[in-house]
Amino acid sequence: VLFTEYIKDMPDVRTQLIMREHFKLCVNSQHPLAKEDTVTLEQIKDEPLIISKRSAAPFYYDRIMKMFTQNGLQPNIHQEVDQMSDIFRMINIGIGVGILSFSGDSYYKNMDLHFIDIDGVRNKTHDKVLAWCDGYISSTASRLIKSLAAHGKFE
Asked: How confident is the model over 20-65, as pLDDT tens digits?
């Protein structure tokens, strides 16, 4: 059993949606855009974007780049990093902005971050799934799946 962000057409792998997050613009709360409820990609295309390296998170990188290219825009990539946590830290100290999946405020409560909806973007959800092999599952994994289902953790 594993928690993952993306499983592509694997017939021997079963999945269960755990949560659906939405990509949002993440800025330091002192950033001029922090007062906005929504922004467009046109508004943020010149902002210094901090993004994960494609080699570190290809699915994430490709999704962000596709958001811009589908709208005929090129992002202003300021820095590419190895760890997603580095993106949050750099935004927190005001180095740039990021487009990140939003999990709720409690995860970021110790940071000075603000998340803003992005208008005009197709396919801006991001699924987190539980995945396991269809023919075999350990008793521990089976108990985990049953427990999550019993506690309403599956969407």
From this structure: 778 899 999 999 999 999 999 999 999 999 999 999 988 889 989 9
Q: Please state, in angstroms and rounded to a whole number, the distance separating the CA atoms of residues 125 and 139.
A: 32
Question: Tokens 């290809």, residue?
Answer: 58
Its sign, for the CA torsion 151, 103, 107, 86, is positive
Burial class (CB in 10 A: 0-12, 13-18, 19+), 44: buried
For residue 84, count CB atoms less than 10 angstroms from its CB and return exposed for 0-12, middle for 13-18, buried for 19 or more: middle
The amino acid occupying position 88 is F
Query: Which candidate, 61, 65, 101, 107, places its Cα nearest to that of 81?
Result: 61
Q: Global pTM?
A: 0.76
Can you tell me the distance from the alpha carbon of 9 to that of 64, in angstroms, rounded to the nearest whole number? 22
The upper half-sphere exposure of residue 120, i.e. CA atoms within 13 Å in the direction of its Cβ, equals: 13
Q: Confirm if 1 and 139 have CB atoms less than 8 A apart.
A: no
Residue 52 dihedral angles phi and psi, to the nearest 5°: -70, 145
Task: Give the type of residue at 73.
Answer: L
- Which residue has tokens 């603000």? 114
